[in-house]
Amino acid sequence: MNARIAVVEDEEALGVLLRYNLEAEGYIVDTIARGDEADLRLKEVVPDLLILDWMLPGLSGVELCRRLRMRPETERLPIIMLTARGEESERVRGLSVGADDYVVKPFSTPELLARVRAMLRRSKPEKISTLLSAGDIDLDRETHRVRRSGREIRLGPTEFKLLEFLMQSPGRVFSREQLLDGVWGRDIYVDERTVDVHVGRLRKSINRGRQRDPIRTVRGAGYALDEQFTAAKTAAPRTDALSA
User: How many CA atoms lie within 13 A of 140 on its CB side?
Assistant: First the structure.
């Protein structure tokens, strides 16, 4: 079962962005806009991880965090706190009330996702898959190794991230802007045409001879990992393929 993440954030645009990227990673996401509402809902359903804004209407994130740590059912709940407060004293305050990690706005989406994965890997290792498979392609997030039909493929760091991002949501069409946000991050300016260049490099690396191209170009929309390629498993699953 996929990990469930609760996002308590009153800034609507940021809440939508977080939900989109977390769901693209395969998580089940609940979004809540008020601290007092989150206090009630977390009594009913305890997620596997909580992303909590510092400043919230109804009840502050700091107070909510303090209350959660006083309840037996949420005393060990992993909590990442989001805030515009970057001073050391404020970070200390956030950690002192029970937050496990602290991210200052504006932040890099890939970095936040990496922190989420790292925290879930420690607290809920059974819910984090380090191996992604699509068709005859296997990708290992831990070792950063990729194989196709047993053949190892050497990718640059950007091509690896691009393939990983597409493999997380087979069939889903991502615009160039969405790929820029998901792979490069919102805080880095990269021209949209750069996406085409890296998709071309990725295709050149993973496609040999008459092998089927798993990346589908959707004219005027963007790119997707072809769901028909994913469904057509041309090689038997190899649980040890990337650990050798």
Answer: 18
150, 69: one domain: no
Do 235 and 150 touch, CB atoms closer than 8 A? Answer: yes
Quote the CA–CA distance of 40 and 212 in Å, as a whole number.
50
Fill in the amino acid letter for 66. R
DSSP conformational letter for 180: I
pLDDT at 83: 84
Ramachandran region of residue 150, left (φ > 0), alpha (ψ -120 to 50) or beta?
A: left
Token code pair at residue 74: 């949420």
- Please give the Cα distance from 88 to 151 (Å, whole number): 48
Q: What is the pLDDT of residues 58-91, one digit of tens each?
A: 999 999 999 999 999 999 999 999 987 666 666 6
Are residues 136 and 121 part of one domain? no
Q: List the one residue out of 198, 215, 208, 199 whose CA is nearest residue 150.
A: 208
